[in-house]
Specification:
Number of strands: 3
Strand content: 5-15%
Mean pLDDT: 84
Radius of gyration: 34 Å
Distance between the termini: 70 Å
Strand order of the largest sheet: 1-3-2
Low-confidence stretches: 1-6
Number of helices: 10
Order of helices and strands: HHHHHHHEHHEEH
Length: 313
Amino acid sequence: MNLPLGPVLPQEDPRQSLRVRRFLMAALVYLLAILLLALYVRQGLLALHEWRFAALVILLVNGALFALLRSGRNERFADPSLTGIQMIVVCLVMGMTMYLLDGGRGGMLLLFLVLLMFGVLRLNARQFTALGGFALFCYATAIAAVWQQRPEAFNPQVEFLHLAALSTLVPCGGFFASHVSSLRRALRERQIDLQRALEEVHDLRSLDPLTGISNRSATIAFLTQEMQRAERLDQPLSVIMIDLVRFKRVNREYGHPAGDEVLQGVAERLRRGVRDIDGLGRYGGEEFLVVLPDTPEDEANRVASQLQDAIQN
């Protein structure tokens, strides 16, 4: 079942919508963390007021990040996804939570490892390794504080195993981050190649290969579209047909390569003499068609005269 997330997800920007979706997935893990901490309260491993404090911090931080993403101000950052900021928040919240708990830190550590894995989607190997080092520092600082202030809640053997497990994750996560980063790079290159291929296909379908202007079918399609628009809006429309006389004599006396150069030169002069909104195409072998939207006959005659002079000169 699809939930109506229209007001939550930005519809005008697919990339921004994807960023918000990823954030909401991470926010769901945070919600599970809050519920799991409530279970710690029932087991006597966390005081109720400490649970309220941790839940408030998590909600406020995630609310601020969501507001930043939804407002679009994240676009001003070098990383609009705010991955680095979110990962730093994960490490700090993890350290705070581990300090508050009186035991059973392994369960919460697994949940925070899931949050760290979101960094694999955006960070490269070097960045994820730095993030893992910061996570280790936050966790080690938290359990060191517990050891100093609440030694009865500190189990050296268990905490050492937790720290060793977290240390193992850092190089593993760095490897996966490197792999995902290479996949993103390969996908980006393929998208660029595909875009170039689509542009080439479009050029082959709509452009004349010799002159570089529109071919016959594209010119007729443009003319048909402008005829419909002129009729609908009751606007003038003019068409200029250009035929190069004695062109076959050029091919016969100087050869077809010379004739090709003439056609290319004529197309270039015609291109300079028309507006950006006008249509210009090669209608036949030595015939060209110019479509002039919103142009009355007297103005079209002036343009035709200028084009004729440009070609004859």
